[in-house]
Amino acid sequence: xxxxxxxxxxxxxxxxxxxxxxxxxxxxxxxxxxxxxxxxxxxxxxxxxxxxxxxxxxxxxxxxxxxxxxxxxxxxxxxxxxxxxxxxxxxxxxxxxxxxxxxxxxxxxxxxxxxxxxxxxxxxxxxxxxxxxxxxxxxxxxxxxxxxxxxxxxxxxxxxxxxxxxxxxxxxxxxxxxxxxxxxxxxxxxxxxxxxxxxxxxxxxxxxxxxxxxxxxxxxxxxxxxxxxxxxxxxxxxxxxxxxxxxxxxxxxxxxxxxxxxxxxxxxxxxxxxxxxxxxxxxxxxxxxxxxxxxxxxxxxxxxxxxxxxxxxxxxxxxxxxxxx
Length: 325
Known about the structure:
This protein is of the alpha/beta class and 325 residues long. The chain has helices spanning 53-61, 82-86, 104-112, 119-132, 148-160, 178-193, 205-211, 229-239, 252-259, 287-296, 311-319; strands at residues 4-19, 22-38, 42-46, 68-73, 76-77, 89-92, 166-170, 197-201, 214-219, 222-228, 241-248, 264-271, 276-282, 300-307.
């Protein structure tokens, strides 16, 4: 393991529903959640609906206070000397609230007040960030004239203005078009290469796979897996692989015959016109059995190609196929 920048140790958080002053129901959002984010990582944070991702981020950023456990940044509890420790964190929320009548520099100056920055720091850092994020030429325009992508970039500039050591992003690509997603991805990679550690929570699994170096998956408020993306994929591939077959004369009876074999699953079927595409998930040792079974049942096989395991495959296997929140 490297040097831990952010560490959660058995963090618990309950939501209590009250009626007439009495607690009538308690929902456990985080159940002794422990995870580590190392310096220099781009850490993808995933979980199904209600897993506790948003609650975790709110506890890390100080919006909520945990009921038990500890959250440390560089080994120091964020609730001790909280102004200094919380200033080591930059936060870009999913929902952005900016004042439409202010321009970029006015916006940065307003939020800089929360970090006790002087005018020279605001001018120097603000100019550099607006240049990096492609907002320099629009810096005098009021924010109300900005597109969503431009507002996201300005909000990112606010999160980076006080030079945090870790940037926490909650659904950063939400609402962006493909061009905006590509631009944001490029900026995050550059920032990471310059030494910034990033924790990214996202619905878009392909986005996490594209940019993140490590991933943590939580379910029911607990961490169920944390590793580099490459190691997770390698472990899953040892258990089962995906196989794409281009065939002809494959029908319902063939499908039922295959799936009766333990360890063979038909996960997708596509009509390619002259041929059919069948995608299987199976143990590698069962490939000869599958091909023999198909040929003996008069199914013509034109090609067999292994497919890379995606982060979506891993997510579905780890969480039992739950929907993301």
